[in-house]
Amino acid sequence: MTKSVVRLFAALFALALFATSCGSTASDVVDGATDAVDDAASEVEDAVTGDEEEAMEEDPMDDEETMDEEETMEEEPAAADDSDEVEVVQSGGSVLDAVQSRGELNCGVSGAAVAFSVPDPSGRMIGFDADLCRAVAAAILGDAEAVNLVALTAAERFTAVQTGDVDVLMRNTTWTQSRDTDIGMDFGPTTYYDGQQLMGRAGDGFSGDSTVADIDGAIVCTNAGTTTEKNISDAADAAGVSVTLNTFEDFDQVTDNFISGACDIITTDGSGLVGRKAQQQPADQDWAIFPGQPISKEPLGPTYGQNDSAFADVVNWTVYAMIIADEKGITSSNAGSIVGNDDFDAEAQRLMGGEGELQSLMGLDANAFMNVIEQVGNYDELFAEHLEPVGIKRAGSANAGWQDGGLIYAPPAR
Hints:
There is one protein chain. This protein is an alpha/beta fold. It has 3 domains: 3-58; 106-192 and 300-404, D-Maltodextrin-Binding Protein, domain 2, CATH 3.40.190; 201-290, Periplasmic binding protein-like II (D-Maltodextrin-Binding Protein, domain 2, 3-Layer(aba) Sandwich), CATH 3.40.190. It is built from 14 helices and 14 strands. The chain has helices at residues 3-21, 27-58, 60-92, 95-102, 128-141, 157-162, 177-181, 227-239, 251-260, 270-280, 309-328, 346-351, 368-375, 379-386, and strands at 105-109, 118-119, 125-126, 147-151, 168-169, 185-187, 192-194, 196-201, 219-223, 244-248, 265-269, 287-290, 298-300, 303-305. The strands form 5 sheets. The chain has a 5-stranded mixed sheet with strand order 10-9-11-8-12, with helices on both faces. α5 (128-141) packs across α11 and α5 runs antiparallel to α13. 38% of the residues are buried.
């Protein structure tokens, strides 16, 4: 209530007393005083109401507290949703848990890549990639044969990982930016550094000295759904030549069409061409692989689903263990006798399950990598068994060890 209103009340009260002392002759004064009092009361009521409204408008704490309460009410359900989402992700577990529970690794391979993964006469899948699958099975399950090798076309492979039909790909798959992001794959260590080349018939004028510029007007055949399609198109454009590109689901079809004469040129990773030439070149033909410098970079290695560190660590370190074993002279014949052998250093001891081993922290048996080397072999053993017989040489190539001028390299096991 304001001071002016208080003074008005006091004056009116005095006037009322005066009127009362004067009797009925002062009735008009009393009536006027009464009206004035009513007006004053109304003014007081308005003043009080106004003060309350101003207080409501001017008190920022009340507003902020109310807003905080409203925001809290809005934010709490979101926090609950986030918690639920985390629980769902965690309850899914790692692929590592699934493989251990299942007792078998599902590993995707080509099934038609000579020296990498092809069935032998008995139907057993053999090759460099097939044995890398067995190596991962040995690390996780202690048994290199506890593996289901699934033959996949290039178009099928990524979907098979995404749907969980396979746990990992060992299928001459190139690590690229789009596959790492748009398709949603993760990649392990490069197990074979390759590059795209072309192959033509010497009878058609092609030789090891031929170049992309020499294929103008040719019918070029390759796999569908691979990086080779884009690579050969880009290379032809860069060379200023025009080609007809035909694609097929698997490379058996590509080679069959080449043998029949339906394709003038076939193209894929150089390793694939070397393997096909070694095993499928007809006696009356001479196939030439060119150019000497590949037209692309094709780093090949394990491929698996994104954001599963536990499983990725196991796959990656299985490969690294095979590389380190090669460097240190640990082979399938001596892997079981490394621990306690003073001829091998502390890193070799740890890797084979000795003091300071780290495999158990990965959810594996301490002897996991000893099982890998003993049952499957080190990196060089796989290379020598599967790739060198078809003419793929390791010495002097990018696939030589880093100490020999190559790119095959592993981080330290410590």
